[in-house]
Every structure is written in C-alpha cells, then in structure tokens.
Amino acid sequence: MTLNQNRLTQLTSLMAEHDWDLLLLYGHTWRKDYFRCLVNFNFSGPHAVAALDRSGQVHVIVSDPWDAEGLPGAIFAPDFAAALQPYGTKRSVAIAGKEIMQARFTNADHVSATYAVEELRRVKNDDELTRIRHAAELSDRGYQHFAQAAEPGMTEYELVAEVEAFLKSNGAEDNFMLIASGGTEVVGMKPPTERKLQVGDSVTTELTPQIDGYWAQICRTLVIGEPNAKQLEAFAIFAEARQAGEDLLRPGVNIADVARVQNDVFRKFGYGEYTGPKYTRVRGHNLGLHPDENPYVLEDVNYIVKEGMVVIAHPNTYLPLSGYMVFGDTLLVTAGGCTSLNTTERKLFQK
Amino acid sequence: MKRGWITWDKTELPPSVFETRLAVVRRHLAAEGLPGLVVYTDVWRSNQGRYLANFMPYWNRALLVIPRDSVPILLCGLSPRVYPWIRSVTILDEIRPSTNIAQQLTKLCEEKGWTKVGVLDLPQLPSDLMVPNSVDVPWSAIHPAPDDAELSMYRHSARMAREILNEELPSGLGLVDHEFVGRLERKYRRGGVEDLVILVTNGDTPPLPPNGSTLTPSFSVSVAMEYRGHWVKIVKTLQQFPGTSSELRIELLSGPYPYEYCEPADIGEGAVFAAMTEATVNGKRIFLGDSYWQGPNGLL
Q1: For residue B299, what is the DSSP state?
Q2: Range A126-350: architecture per CATH
Q3: B125 Cβ contact partners less than 8 Å away, ≥ 6 residues apart
Q4: Under a CB-based contact definition with an 8 Å cutoff, are residues B214 and B233 in contact?
Q5: Partners of B265 in the β-ladder
Q6: How far apart are CA A347 and CA B274, in angstroms?
Q7: Which residues of B touch A70 (CB under 8 A)?
Q8: Which residue of B has its CA nearest to A279?
Q9: pLDDT value, residue A329
C-alpha cells in the first residue's frame, strides 16, 4: 500500500497536537478526497476508510472486494459498519469526513477532523504539484479539443461527449465539466442539454480533469462566429477582473481581497450588482483532491493565502451585455505572487 | 463527468408514474402517522431522488421533502440560477436555496409545525444532517419492487449498454486501456448516457480503473452506465467463457447507490442487480456479467 509519507507525518503530528488516539480518514464514491489524501487509491466504493494510530500504523477497510484486491493490505468488510465498530470505541477518535459519513458509522463521541485535515491539504507538496501540473496540462489540451470540436448544429451533450472521450483517452480518471451556450438569456452553466450551438452563441465551459486523484480547472468562453461588440466589451471586463485577482494573489493576502479586487472591476464599469449570489456563485476556489475545495474566493470568506496553495480565481458571472461568461486558470501561489499552470491563450475564443 | 445530459422525456416516464409513486409514499406516511418524508440525494447517491422526483444532482447534495398533504419541496445547495432547468427535468416546482440544508430542513419542519418527520433509510443519512425526532422509513417500505415504468427504463439502459459494448469490444484489443475507455465514453455519451464508470483488466487483477496498460487477448471490461437515472452494469471479454466458472459476484442496482457489492442472500424479490462471474483461462482471469431483475424473465 503506497502512503503519502509527507501527509502521514503531518497527520501523526496533528493527532499528537489534539491528543487523538485514532484518526479515521473516510471517503465515499463522490468524496474520496479525505481518504485519498493519505492512501491515494481510486476505489470503486461506496466506502473506504484509513484508520491511523499515533504510531503511524495504517489499516485500510473497503466495502468492495475488488477494491481490496486492487489495494494490497486493505481489508474487505462486507459489513462496513461492523468493521468500523472496534475502531470507534478507542478513547479519542477523530474523523476527517465525519459529516459525510453515514450516521450508522459514527457517534456523537467522535470529533470531526475535517477542517484540520483540509487545512493540511491546502498547501501542496512537490508530488502533489506534479500531479496537478499534469492535470492542468491535460485541461489545456482538453480545451483545445473543445474549441476544435464545437460547431454550429452540434448539441451541447455531443460536444461534451467529444471532450469527455478526449480526456479519458488521455488518462483522466474523471472530469467535472459544466457548459452553457446562447446569448443574454444564459444566466449560468449546468450539465449539457440537447440545445444545438448556433452562430453568435457564447459557449462557456469549465473543464476540470482529474489525474491520479488531483484536479485542475480551466474556464474559457468561445464565440461561434464573429464576436459582437457587446461580447467583446464584456470579455474586456472579465479579462481585467481576472488579471486584478491574479495580480493580488500571493502569500499573506486575505482571499476576501482577491474576490474584492475582481468585483471592483465590475463595479467600476457599473456592473457591481452582478457580483453577488443572484448572478454568480464564487469568484474562485481552492483545488486539489476535490475540484471545489475551501476556501472559496468570496468577499465574505476570511482566509490568509499561503505559499503552495493551488487556486482558481475566476470572475465568472452573468452580465446583461453578453449573458454568462467565464475566464480563469489554475494558479499556484508562489513566494512572490502566483503563476498559472495553464498555457491556453487568454483570449475570447472564436470558431 | 458527473453528469452528462440530464433530461426528462415524458413519453418514457409520464408524470402519472411519479404521482403513483408519491401516492405510495403518502399512504405509508399516513399509516405511520408521519407528516412528511425526507430523502437524501447527492451526486453519487441519487437513485431514490430520481425514483420519486426525477431529480439527480450533477453536483452537491440536496434533500427532497415529501409532505403528506402537499407537493414535494427540494432543499438544494445549487444556485437559484439553475432552478428553471431543475424544474424542466423534474416534477419539482418548489425549490428552496439551502447553503446549509440541515438548517433549512429544521426551518421547514418548524414552518410546517412538524414535531417529527420520516427519513428514508435514516441510519444511512450523512451524520451532519441528522434531525431530532426523525423516524426511519426503510426504502423497501415505499419501493418493494420496481414498477413497470422503472423496469422499462432499466431494460432500455441494459440494451444500450450491451449494444454499444458488443460493437466496441473487439476494437479494444491492442489499444491502451485509456484509449479504449475514451472510445466507449464517446459512444455512450453521444447516445445520451449521463454517467459511466469503466473498469478494465488484462486478467491479473479484477476489473480496476485503467492504468495505461495495453489490452491483451484476455482483457475484460466492466461498464456501469446511467441512462436517465437508471444504472446497469455489464462485464464482457473477448475470450470464450468456459462452461464452469468460480466466484459469483452480486451488486445491488436498485438500492440507494448506483451499484453496491452485496451477498446473494441480500437480493430479495423484485431487486435489480448485476451478477458477475469469473473463470481462469490460460492462467488469466476473465470476467462476464450482466444486469438482472429478480422476477420472471430475470435478464433486463
């Protein structure tokens, strides 16, 4: 069983600090990240747990026998709740992922280690960065494929099928992707529909391929045909907002200010109302073993940025000029600022 | 991708199907003296929300609340900007934005004057969503067996899974597993499939996620596929399967999860499940499986 040794050291220190006897890292099929932060195995599920004691001993329990065969050393438990029971009776048990764990697997005496483990995960080590760089490189190639494949008359779901096939062919474990097409009636992205792409459409997407557990994201907007004046005007605002966020992002900055400087650009152009929850969700988020990690880039989130975090700062929102538009890269926070892990041209694409 | 094209074709699943299913729920609530039922759903665990409301989240998690005497309500972490789309692909009309769905549920219960509430499969509810005075309502109480409409959708899904895999399987030989998986993704997704999990093996392990191996003559592939919310699983190999095989593996498809390993004894009357077997040929493990219904003419 291959363990993230750096994380193992961090976790045993965390246990000593909090006087926890046992730390359970729980994952289910949708949220494998708490488990994979120590045991980077892509289990089928639905459940897996890594039980870590203070000495650094790790026991892994999985709910599927094929997972146990794929991960030597793991124990297959046909009754997962019963298999967890002996661990749950230790003096002081903490669980990362307690909130998402089925109620029958835990009890009120167990404390949540979710936030503490997420905090450890925010700063990536070199091995993790290698995987994220690989995912970012695949997101660039995936977007190229997206832009090449998009054509009038193609449905959104057919376009997604082409991109999904490309990403999987090139080694993606999974991909999180949203899309939208159309004009000012488009207020957000969602899963693909049967709508056919038309000349004049803004086609927005966020591609988020996963490589060896780690996700990277790219957001771009493509216009089918020549962009009109309002699409160009809108894109210029998005470009300025994205740049403002990236110019500020560095260690020691409050993430709220990264959101604020993006939003200030919209305010400057008279579109401040489109920076709130009615028109947009977040101005970015952390990336890693989950594609939508905390901290979110929002003006009401108080978090001091650290070197080694990987963040996307995307000013995605609706504007009455052009409808919903997206723009953003996967960014690595460096000692003096941040650097994009994407190489895709920063422009309004057209086809 | 979780998930691709989500839609509601009312010729496949007429609204009356959902009315009938909700009537069963309401009769159970009345018999148990419960004012409403709470159904948990998320990206992976969506079979029950799909069955009752055609709701399958593409992201995040949600609670479907079915009052005994009024229309269902969705407590949803997704943005209100996608509510018109949710309304277009589900039976739902009332959707309440819920950054914290546990708090929103408590608020709803207070608003309705409910002092207790039924929760579908209560012990399996995520621990942070436990609400006081909740009563377990087992899935089997409201879904003893699939109805005709659900079976028809499962059969459609299984047909599609088989047809595409039969067509593509020979082309896998000699390809890198990632490339073969990509080829299958393209075909299935263009056919309207929402989600896919594809596992492969060259016969030294059970089917596992692709790892960059070139597929040899002994390869097997497992395709779990979701069409309009109905998951099926099939496993195929190019090898001639011997008459005798070992190891029967069963996965429940009609439970809360898309598929879940279980013991054969757990498959009750009416269950939809995948059955897989393996054999050893020339020292390599080969796998074969399909999806079934525990009833007359069991192959889906």
Answers
A1: B
A2: Alpha-Beta Complex (3.90)
A3: A102, A103, B40, B119, B134
A4: no
A5: none
A6: 48
A7: 205-206, 208
A8: B81
A9: 98
pLDDT tens digits, residue range B220-247? 999 999 999 999 999 999 998 887 767 7
What number of other Cβ atoms are within 10 A of residue A119's Cβ? Answer: 15
Structural domain boundaries of chain A? Answer: 5-121, 126-350
Give me the architecture of the A5-121 domain, per CATH: 3-Layer(aba) Sandwich (3.40)
Q: Are A42 and B209 in contact (CB under 8 A)?
A: yes
| Three-state SS sequence of A149-179 | HCCCCCEHHHHHHHHHHHHHHCCCCEEEEEE
CA B252 – CA B263 distance, rounded (Å) = 9
Mutation target among B40, B78, B185, B247 for the A interface, most CBs of A within 10 A: B185
Residues B108/B137, Cβ–Cβ less than 8 Å: no
| B3 pLDDT higher than 90 | no
Question: Min CA distance, A163 vs chain B (Å)?
Answer: 8
Report the residue of A43, A102, A324 to disrupt the B interface, i.e. the one with the largest count of B CBs within 10 Å. A102
Tell me what the pLDDT averaged over chain B comes to. Answer: 95
Express each pLDDT in A183-237 by its tens digit: 999 999 999 999 999 999 999 999 999 999 999 999 999 999 999 999 999 999 9
Contacts of B79 in chain A (CB under 8 A): 188, 277, 281
The pTM assigned to this predicted structure is 0.96
- The per-residue pLDDT for B154 is 97
A295 preceded by a cis bond (ω within 30 of 0): yes
CB contact under 8 A, B126 and A157: no
Please report the domains of chain B, with CATH numbers, ordered by start residue. Answer: 15-142 (3.40.350.10), 148-293 (3.90.230.10)
Name beta bridge partners: A196: A155
Q: ∠ CA(B13), CA(B14), CA(B18), 5° rounding? A: 85
> Cα distance from B128 to chain A (closest Cα, Å)?
5
Reduced to 3 states, what is the DSSP secondary structure of residue A116? Answer: helix
Residue with tokens 């004049």: A200
CA distances from A135 to A138, B188, B221 (A): 5, 24, 25
Indicate if ipTM > 0.85.
yes
Low-confidence ranges of chain A (pLDDT < 50): none
- Decide if B260 and A46 are in contact by the 8 Å CB cutoff: yes
Chain B nearest C-alpha distance from A323 (Å): 12
Query: Is the CB of B205 less than 8 angstroms away from the CB of A176?
Result: no
pLDDT at B296: 74
Distance CA B225, CA B157 (A): 8
Report the mean per-residue pLDDT for chain A.
97
CB B202 within 8 A of CB B282: no
Q: Can you give the pLDDT at residue B1?
A: 61
